[in-house]
Design brief:
Blueprint (H helix, E strand, L loop, with lengths): L1 E5 L4 H13 L3 E5 L33
Parallel strand pairs: 1-2
Protein name: NAD dependent epimerase/dehydratase family protein
InterPro entries: Epimerase_deHydtase (IPR001509), NAD(P)-bd_dom_sf (IPR036291)
Organism: Halomonas daqiaonensis
Length: 64
């Protein structure tokens, strides 16, 4: 299954994504505006997973 998580760089969203990647075979797409609340550091360790694509452009738009 492919799951879309919004706010995945925040505290709760990143915990959900880490849990999904660690405990399922599902794919995760993270859409986050990366404001002062979102921190990519909370997702260290899963960024290399082929089940976790995450990219953005300079205007803050997610590239799916």
């Amino acid at each position: 299954m492919k799951l879309l998580i919004t706010g995945g760089a925040g505290f709760i969203g990143s915990a959900v994504i880490r849990h999904i990647i660690a405990n399922t075979d599902d794919r995760v797409v993270n859409v986050d505006k990366l404001t002062y609340v979102g921190k990519l550091g909370s997702l260290v360790g899963i960024g290399d997973s082929n089940r976790y694509p995450f990219d953005w452009d300079r205007q803050g738009n997610c590239i799916l």
